[in-house]
Structures are given as C-alpha cells and as structure tokens.
Amino acid sequence: MDTMSKNSFRALLKKIFELPIWIKQSIYLEIKHELEQTIKDNIKLIKKDNSLQLYIPKATFLGKTELESRAKNLDENIYKFLSGCMHNLSIIEIAINYNWSLAECSTYFINAINSELIIPPESTSIKGTALYMGGFIRLGEYFVKLGKITLEQLDEALRTQKYIENTVKDKIGIAQILINLGYLTKADVEGILLLKEECKKRYIPDDDLDSSDDFTDNSEAAELKRQISQLTKENNQLKDQMRKMFKI
Asked: Percent helix, strand and coil across the chain, each rounded to 5?
C-alpha cells in the first residue's frame, strides 16, 4: 500500500512545500510569530528528536504477531495504532489518518507500550509527554519524569498547595506553586500547558474520507463521516488558520 499518496499529514506538507518560496517564507514567519506569542521561550526547547508528534513508534515482535492474530482481542484502536506503526508512520500521521486527537493517540501509544506491543522510546521527553497528554500522569509527575524537579520538590509543592487551600481557602495550580518555589520557570510550564489544552482537538482534512483513509473499512468510514458535523465546530479555528495561510 502506498501510504504516502494518501497520508493526510504528508499531503498537507506537500501542499506547503510546493508553494513558491516567497509564500513559504511568509507562512514560516506567521507561524513563528504565533508560536513565540503563545509558548515564547519554550519554542527554543522543541527539537525533532524530543517531539512526541514526530516520533515514529516501532512494533515489537509481539506487536506484529498480535496485529496478525488478534489473539488478545484488544481494543480495535490499538490494532489501528499498530497498523500505523507497521507503515512507519509518526504519531501525528497516525492521529490524523485515524481522525484522532493527540490525547487519544497518546492513550493508545502508552497502552501499546504497557502491553509490550511497541518498543518504548528512548527519549524521556517523548514518553513523559505521551503519559501527560494521555492523562496517565499529572503535571508535577511529568516534570519529575523529565528530570526538571525531584520527587522531594514535588512533595513540597503539593504540601504547599494543600496548605494554601486549607488556610487561605484559595485554589492555586501546582504549576504556579512550582514557579513560586523557584523549581520551575514560567517558560518551563507554558508550552506543555498549552499543548495539554490543545491536545484534545482533532484536525479533520478537507479531503474525502474514503480516499484519504488507508486503514478503516467502509463501516468505520461511515461512522467517521457521521461524526464530522460534531467535530467540525471545534476545528473551525484551526482550519481557518490553515486556509488563511494558503491564501497569503
């Protein structure tokens, strides 16, 4: 199967790469400006080798065998995730091809790791981000896994948070507590908090589902079509931004 010809993410990149350089330059400057306004200094910390979205998961022998036999009768989405792995797709490609949010894809990613169906990533940043996006750990635990803070510092922050809530009767997030204690900077937390906020959104390509979906059967495609009207509203902002970029 030629996944590249129907890969929605690659098709989107192809459209951008084929634009004249003066348009691509303008798109780059607009996106760079927007990211600097939202996650500021954190953008400098994002590299391809520690990006969850660009990570290409690899199936284990057990994962390959299970995909063929389906002996464990797992959640169908786990098999879809494994199929994406077998076609050498990145997390973002798998998510878009199956119409998943990053949060959903992260959940299947971690479940597949825990079931020894895929090889765990060497990067603590990639696995930690997936655990946080998938709701397996909280923000403080995420920073512990990344080595940004220690367990002792997290415990101190949690005790401080509880003390403030009990005495001042005011709720304050653990991120702000960690910043106030000097264990983290604002730049440390703003990027991951924004990603967490955005990770539940889906990107729905404008292309016809039947022609762009490599892995689902007709019944699944029909179900996805039924969901489009509900999902379109939450994606309007993202799609409008992409349309504006292409019309520059």
From this structure: 70, 0, 30
- Is residue 105 within 8 A of residue 95, CB to CB? The reply is yes
Which residue in 160, 132, 161, 159 sits closest to 144, CA to CA? 132
- The C-alpha angle 85, 198, 106, rounded to 5 degrees, equals 25
> 21-58: string of b/e by CB count within 10 Å (b at 16+)?
eeeeeebeeeeeeeeeeebeebeeeeeeebbbbebebe
Measured distance CA(146)–CA(179) in Å, rounded: 16
* pTM score over 0.70: yes
* Phi, psi of 118, deg, nearest 5: -135, 160
* Phi-psi label, residue 147: left if phi above 0, alpha if psi -120 to 50, beta otherwise: left
- Out of 124-128, 191-195, 225-229, least confident range: 225-229
Q: For position 248, what pLDDT does the model report?
A: 46
**DSSP symbol at 214:** S
pLDDT tens, 62-113? 999 999 999 999 999 999 999 999 999 999 999 999 999 999 999 999 999 9
CA 105 remoteness from chain centre: 7
Residue 46, pLDDT above cutoff 90: no
Backbone angles phi, psi at 59, to 5 degrees: -75, 145
- Residue 118 DSSP class: B
Q: What is the pLDDT of residue 244?
A: 58
Amino acid identity for residue 8 in this structure: S
Please enumerate in sequence order all residues whose Cβ is within 8 A of that of 45, keeping only pairs 6 or more positions apart, or say none.
Answer: 191
Q: What is the dihedral of CA 100, 105, 108, 111, to 10 degrees?
A: -160
Structural contact between residues 161 and 147, judged by C-beta atoms closer than 8 angstroms? no
